[in-house]
Amino acid sequence: MDSEARFRNLLATEQQYLHLLKMAGSVGDTLKVSEKLGGVRGDIEQLQAEFAALAQRVQTAAIRVSLRGDGDVQVLGLRWRPLYRAKLSLREAADSLGSYGATMFSIFLHLPVIALWLFTFFTFAAVGWKLLRWAARVFFDWRPRSNS
């Protein structure tokens, strides 16, 4: 698209230089306009050569498409595709194995955080137990049983 726009602009520029060439009054003006016109014509010929090369490439390009379907085997009126089912099962097994690995890796990376949470939970549980025993002794005169 850019080349086509450039080509149109070059053609318009060529027409303007041809008009200026007709109006040129001196030899110097004629030479200057002729020089510019020659450059524009060279650019036009170069773009035309590029268009021709592209057109030839497009003509020689070929696309080959082939489609085939999975062979369906019917056993007792049922569609039976053992290889397809095996492929699906293998894909699901690989996906599950990957998911398992990712989960184990995540758990391994989170072990310090899990340990910190467990430590916090058991510390609060121990402190709570001590407070309950203290409150039971102070407010309810409760004494732990002795084994003897």
What does this structure look like?
With 148 residues, the protein is mainly alpha-helical. Among the domains are: 2-60; 110-148. Helices cover 78% and strands 4% of the residues. It is built from 3 helices and 2 strands. A two-stranded antiparallel sheet has the order 1-2. A hairpin with a 2-residue loop joins strand 1 and strand 2. The chain is elongated and about 130 Å long.
Gyration radius over CA: 44 Å
The major β-sheet equals: 2 strands, antiparallel
Outline the low-pLDDT stretches.
none
Instruction: For the largest sheet, list the strands in their spatial order.
Output: 1-2
Structural class: mainly alpha
Q: Quote the beta fraction.
A: under 5%
Order of helices and strands: HHEEH
Terminal-residue CA separation = 102 Å
Helix segment tally: 3
Number of strands: 2
Residue share in helix: over 70%
* Shape category: elongated
Mean pLDDT: 85
Describe this protein with a few key phrases.
148 residues, mainly alpha, two-stranded antiparallel ribbon
Summarize it.
With 148 residues, the protein is mainly alpha-helical. It contains three helices and two strands.
Layout of strands and helices, then pairs:
Layout: H1 2-23, H2 27-60, E1 73-75, E2 78-80, H3 82-140
Antiparallel strand pairs: 1-2
Helix pairs in contact: 1-2
